[in-house]
């Protein structure tokens, strides 16, 4: 017998519900280091994440590959939600070339937690 649990739209805003991404190498002005690759495409689908330094959130614009200290920098393809929007569906893309052709994209969920956002990559 299976049971369904209604997911509260505020659960993922609790401190223990997400993983903080506070790495020093994150940020628009951080140069890419080929000897120490960083790639957010490897974040675990289904887990919630919060960016806690630099912008404090994902950018809403495309960047070229090797930007922001990343091998494949990620960004939202639409605006962040307002506080009263609850959990919204968005698309996250990772720039995979200098021209951004052939980007890797994945569905995601985003929640505005008042002073910050949390993100969840959809499970395949």
Could you characterize what this model shows?
The protein has 124 residues and is an all-beta fold. Helices cover 0% and strands 26% of the residues. It has no helices and six strands. The chain has strands at 19-21, 48-51, 74-76, 87-94, 104-112, 117-121. It has a six-stranded mixed β-sheet, with no helix packed on it. A hairpin with a 4-residue loop joins β5 and β6 (117-121). The chain is globular and about 40 Å long. It starts with 18 loop residues before the first strand and ends with a strand. The model is unreliable at 1-6 (pLDDT under 50).
Helix amount:
under 10%
Instruction: Decide which structural class fits the backbone.
Output: mainly beta
State the major sheet.
6 strands, mixed
Q: What does the overall shape look like?
A: globular
Mean pLDDT: 77
Query: How are the strands ordered across the major sheet?
Result: 1-2-6-5-4-3
Q: How many β strands by DSSP?
A: 6
> H/E order of the elements?
EEEEEE
Give unreliable regions as ranges: 1-6
Alpha-carbon Rg, integer: 15 Å
**SS element count, helices:** 0
State the gist of this model:
The protein has 124 residues and is mostly beta strands. The protein has strands spanning 19-21, 48-51, 74-76, 87-94, 104-112, 117-121.
Give the helix/strand layout:
Layout: E1 19-21, E2 48-51, E3 74-76, E4 87-94, E5 104-112, E6 117-121
Parallel strand pairs: 1-2
Antiparallel strand pairs: 2-6, 3-4, 4-5, 5-6
Annotation keywords:
124 residues; mainly beta; 6-stranded mixed β-sheet
């Amino acid at each position: 017998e299976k049971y369904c649990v209604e997911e509260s739209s505020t659960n993922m805003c609790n401190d223990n519900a997400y993983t903080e991404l506070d790495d020093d190498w994150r940020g628009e002005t951080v140069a890419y280091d080929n000897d120490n690759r960083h790639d957010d495409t490897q974040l675990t689908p289904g887990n919630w994440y919060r960016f806690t330094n630099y912008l404090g959130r994902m950018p809403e614009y495309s960047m070229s590959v090797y930007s922001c200290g990343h091998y494949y920098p990620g960004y939202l393809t639409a605006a962040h939600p307002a506080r009263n929007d609850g959990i919204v569906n968005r698309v996250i893309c990772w720039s995979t070339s200098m021209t951004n052709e052939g980007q890797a994209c994945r569905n995601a969920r985003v929640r505005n937690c008042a002073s910050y956002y949390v993100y969840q990559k959809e499970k395949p």
